[in-house]
């Protein structure tokens, strides 16, 4: 299979460590521009509250890769990990939760904005070949440049229970 992106880590199973997550909830179908706006809004709110981010931006898409819901009813949480003891002030649209450790199928790739569907398809095929039913889609954004379209990200599919929508 010829890839439309550079595969930095082949599909594999790993455990995603638990983390404290400051995020914004978005609704509706997956929209790259909406994702970027939500991540920027959370980063700005954390900066104004003088709270440091504890890692790259992160997204949890509860209704992807599979859902019986209409796309307008989908939910996703987009934001940044923060220190376990961070006290994030209450602000409209900003939530904080602890994401539990969860076993995931994972891969890392580098490409442009249009290569995400191919990377996700590769990971889905890999999990399906192993007879695993994936849970919510998650992403960690190491590089995400809306101006150039450059992307480097981890794509995760939860395996089994562990990530609930709160």
Description:
This protein is of the alpha+beta class. The protein is 19% helix and 42% strand. It has an 8-stranded antiparallel beta sheet with strand order 1-6-8-7-3-4-2-5. The protein is globular and about 45 Å long.
Features:
Multidrug-efflux Transporter 1 Regulator Bmrr, Chain A; 2 helices; alpha+beta; 166 residues
CATH class: Alpha Beta
Count of individual helical segments: 2
Structural class: alpha+beta
According to CATH, the fold-level topology is Multidrug-efflux Transporter 1 Regulator Bmrr, Chain A
Strand content: 35-45%
The main pleated sheet reads as: 8 strands, antiparallel
CATH architecture: Alpha-Beta Barrel
The low-pLDDT segments are none
Give a brief description.
The chain is of the alpha+beta class.
List the helices and strands and how they pair.
Blueprint: E1 6-16, E2 19-27, H1 32-48, E3 57-61, E4 75-82, E5 95-99, E6 102-112, H2 116-129, E7 134-144, E8 150-159
Antiparallel strand pairs: 1-6, 2-4, 2-5, 3-4, 3-7, 6-8, 7-8
